[in-house]
Amino acid sequence: MGKTTNFSGQPIFNQLLKFIDKSEIRKIAKQHDAERYVKKFKIYHHVVVMLFVAIEGYHSLRETILGLLANAHKLSNLGLSYLVRRSTFSEANARRSSDVFGDIYMSTYRENSRYLADSRLSDADMRRLYIMDSTTISLFKDILRGVGRNPKGGKKKGGIKAHTIIKASENVPCLIRYSEAVRHDHMFLEELHNLAPGSIITFDKGYVDYAQYESFTISQIWYVTRLKDNALYQAREEYDIPDDADSGVLKDEEIILYYGDNKKQEHRARRITYWDDETRGYLSLLPTILNFQPRK
């Protein structure tokens, strides 16, 4: 495992601060003459406090100072060596132009933009996107059957499997179901009958069920998942990769998946092969049928 300490176990706020280059802030402050007559409340401290305000959702100077007071024991972790006074904070807001913060934002964005996704769904598509996954909660009593083989040391623990669907635009669960840990994930797909036509559902390859994929397609519910290595399929037509596509996309093709008794039933799908730089491996994505239309 890597030994980087950039993010492991650190609060979100500390993680954000690691993206800020102090030397670049000083350079921008000098360009705007933002440090003139300032003895203590430097521009970096001002940026930290403003980020604190944004994260906590404060709307007034009073709220901000009270919030800082409540977190006084953590100020050193935030890069603040002292608690700013309300009058000092007010004067700094009036004296420093918003252009300073705009330039700091753009500098930080340009420095880190290469790590951001090069495409994003529209707001309309985000409102119809659902994310599904499951997690197993181990129990010390054998009240529900556990998943996996029995350990050599004796009987395995019982467990509950929690299946959760999150609506991407709201970032909160909209459906939670519990089952025995031994129950296979794909059986949960049968409960997704309330999704409206045009919905997009994404899940991992543990939910493989080609019959349900076919039902999704007929109902105009679009899915995105990974193709299992042992999937039985036949390649049909390969499509040209657009010039503006991500450089990791290696192949885009139509395939026919075979399933059911004697593998006689067919499901028409799309397969995209992608090289992931982070994991240094290939991904075979199954991003629904071919005629999906994004919404603006």
Quick recap:
By secondary structure, this protein is of the alpha+beta class. Helices cover 27% and strands 25% of the residues.
Describe this structure in words.
With 296 residues, the protein is an alpha+beta fold. It has two domains: 12-115; 123-286, Nucleotidyltransferase, domain 5 (2-Layer Sandwich), CATH 3.30.420. Helix content is 27%, strand content 25%. The chain contains eight helices and nine strands. Strands 3-2-1-4-5-9-8-7-6 form a nine-stranded mixed beta sheet, covered by helices on one side. Helix 2 packs antiparallel against helix 6. The two termini are 42 Å apart.
Structural class: alpha+beta
CATH class of the largest domain: Alpha Beta
Radius of gyration: 26 Å
Number of domains: 2
Keywords:
about 25% helix, Nucleotidyltransferase, domain 5, alpha+beta, single chain, 8 helices, about 300 residues, 2 domains
Protein topology:
Layout: H1 12-17, H2 22-32, H3 43-56, H4 61-70, H5 86-95, H6 98-112, H7 123-126, E1 129-139, E2 158-167, E3 172-180, E4 200-202, H8 210-218, E5 222-226, E6 233-239, E7 249-259, E8 265-276, E9 281-286
Parallel strand pairs: 1-4, 4-5
Antiparallel strand pairs: 1-2, 2-3, 5-9, 6-7, 7-8, 8-9
